[in-house]
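tl;dr need the bound structure. longer version: we got a ligand (adenosine-5'-triphosphate) that a collaborator sent over and nobodys looked at where it sits. i said id run it. heres the input, straight from their email, havent touched it
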Amino acid sequence: MAKQEILKVEGLRKRFKDIDAVNKISFSVAEGDVFAFLGPNGAGKTTTIRILMDIIHADEGAISWNLKGQGNGFSIASLLGYLPEERGLYLDLPVINSLIYLAGIRGMQKSKAKIAAMHWLEKLELADRANEKLQALSKGNQQKIQFIASILHEPEFVILDEPFSGFDPINQEKFIEFIKEINYNGTTVLLSAHQMPLVEKVANKVFLINDGCEIYNGSLSDIYNKFGDRMVIDLAFEDHAPLNKVSEIEEVEDIESVDEKQIKVTFMPGTKMEPILNKLSGFAGITEFRTQKYTLHDIFLNLVKNHRS
Ligand SMILES: Nc1ncnc2c1ncn2[C@@H]1O[C@H](COP(=O)(O)OP(=O)(O)OP(=O)(O)O)[C@@H](O)[C@H]1O
């Protein structure tokens, strides 16, 4: 059975002077999705999110929400969870007071908010800092508090704008687990992030935006099926990598220079390994040969590059 649609966006458009920041995009998010909203810098992600959060208004288009809490006097924005790109909490208040206050204005009882806040502070290894002012915490720890603030009231739908930025790799991995956990417990997630290896661990749907326009909208598995059928080989050479000569191999689609000795070669869809091995055997001084999976990162770069050209 198809899952219930929680958010439907149709023909959304926003212009800033002569820039189409968001250019007639449409998508829908269903209950239980982790919907990855991806795009390069300046693509229009934060503008779209700000429109969804009612911070700015669209010039054209329609947004419909289907949240269980609608109609009980709370605004849509207060029913949602939101981790904004620009962080900002009450620096001068003790952490626990900020969290309880923020959950309160979103309709959560004080006693329940306190229990939930302590639960998340324990999880994020910050329980012993609960009574300190936020400004005494490191930037990464402040970000953890802001994440707690966005999900404490157990929203049906949370928007996380760049949740991994500013975290070390260990905390980034932990946050993947936290996102999976809130999603498992019933929160639908719209996630905007640049770290593709993290995104592909948690998302089931992907929307790719570039220059305000849709360039992919579908499931994560479909994006691999449609665009992922490519072989990638990392090559290292004793001396300078012979970029020009490798690019003459007819099956080569793209070459990325890692450094002067290393290259990453992407082959056309359907390329077989054996003829490539034969061709590469003609190159002197190969010190490393490694096949790789074509990742979401590669697909993303390729789709954006093709859209620009
Ligand atoms: N208030 C504004 N006034 C004028 N232009 C704006 C404004 N806000 C955004 N823009 C422009 O709209 C475009 C989209 O910006 P947006 O912040 O939505 O991109 P983004 O995808 O979130 O980028 P990033 O990944 O860098 O955060 C950019 O060209 C940006 O300069």
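gonna send this back to them w/ a short note. The longest strand covers residues 5-16.
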